[in-house]
Amino acid sequence: MYEKLRGIVLSTIKYSDKHNIVHVYTDGRGRMAFAVPQGSTRGARMRNAMLMPLSVIDFEARIVAGCDLATMHDLSRAWPLVDIYCSPVKAALAMFVGEVLSHSIQEQESNRPLFAFVESAVMALEMMQRGVANFHICFLYHLGAHLGIQPDVGSYRKGYWFDMDGGIFVKFPSGGGHVMSPDEAEALHLISRMTFYNLHLFKFNREQRNRVLDVMLAYYRLHNSTLGTLRSPDILKQLFV
User: Fold this and answer.
1) Lowest mean pLDDT among 38-47, 96-105, 120-129, 206-215
2) I want to staple 131 with a disulfide (CB 3.0 to 4.6 A). Which of 31, 180, 200, 231 is the partner?
3) Phi/psi at 87 (nearest 5 deg)?
């Protein structure tokens, strides 16, 4: 069976001497894995260029019942990503987003609001000229809403702690739980106001931004056991002053 899909490339893994496995998050079927032939021909090089992390592609998927790997045909870019792949900083951010999504999304079913969010995030990163250093913070925070783990900012009051286990702000921390201090809780509440279009208004130094990233990833791991260890955050921590 053939089905037309739009997808966002998450990762490519070498499978054999002749094939790679490309993981793609699609609009109609959720996460999918595709067997893609390797090669050194001009056509193969063009195909590989379209399968870099966060590429947004249109294609026909050949799906065989009972087979974990599909194949893709009539592959084309939905729209080109120029800035992301010409900028080392944006390319590193694309790697981070792809890695987070690869670990966080396992469902093989359609979730169009989540797909629309990720696609809009890719478009925003491509077009962004200011505030790029805060992109990954904003992305992580708003992805939480689609994964069902976004903090309850309505419970925030100045001086409250953030209960990471419950996802709420509290007046007094519970003993033995995972909490953020009132200062960090205030920073989290501030981050909740971020959008992809106002990132330049939020000023963090390297130490602050790295601390925010570490805490947010720790929060994700509390609520999403598939996140595991990521390689890309260490790269991001060296990029921004």
Assistant:
1) 38-47
2) 200
3) -100, 120
